[in-house]
Amino acid sequence: MATFSRTAEFDWHGDVTAGSGRVVAGTDAFSVPVTFPVTLGEPPGLATPEELLAAAHATCYGIGLRSLITRRGGHATRVAVTATVTAQKGPDGIRIQSSSLSGVVDGLEGIDAARLHEIAQETEARCTISVALRASVKVSSQVIAR
Asked: Residue 39's pLDDT is what?
């Protein structure tokens, strides 16, 4: 079993509601401006922690789904996944309520729809981000072939 670490650095200037920040991957794979989540509208071009969590979940699940389709003898021309993280802002702060995964597999060959459903469920069960979230929130997934 291999152990590895990944890092991201967060840098914020100013107060919470009017300041600005950036999160950068340790590998320099991305550098994203971030903002404090507000209740009415988000500034365009700035990410929130919840959006970054959704990005991580979509990426983890999408890579896993593509990999498992191949390992089960299938082929796809494209796999697209949307993760929707739902949060509630209350007196104790922002709390993640759920994460929902929705995927589309284009050009699927070698696997029928029933098997795709099984593969999707196995992928969700194995996804690193799903496992971490499942400890505290409901995680669901749905995948269709086109």
From this structure: 47
Could you say which DSSP state residue 47 is in?
Answer: B
Domain check: are 72 and 12 in the same one? no
Residue 110: give its domain's CATH number: 3.30.300.20
Are 71 and 98 in the same domain? yes
Report d(CA 144, CA 107) in Å as an integer: 11
The predicted structure's pLDDT at residue 93: 84
Which positions ≥6 away from 123 have C-beta within 8 Å?
A: 61, 64, 65, 68, 141
Task: Please report where in the chains the tokens 């196995």 appear, as a residue.
Answer: 122
For residues 80 and 107, state if they share a domain. yes
What domain range includes position 34? 1-47
Rg (CA), the chain: 17
Mean pLDDT, contiguous 10-residue spans, the chain (146 residues)? 89 83 92 73 74 94 96 96 92 91 96 93 96 90 90
Token digits for 138? Answer: 């409901």
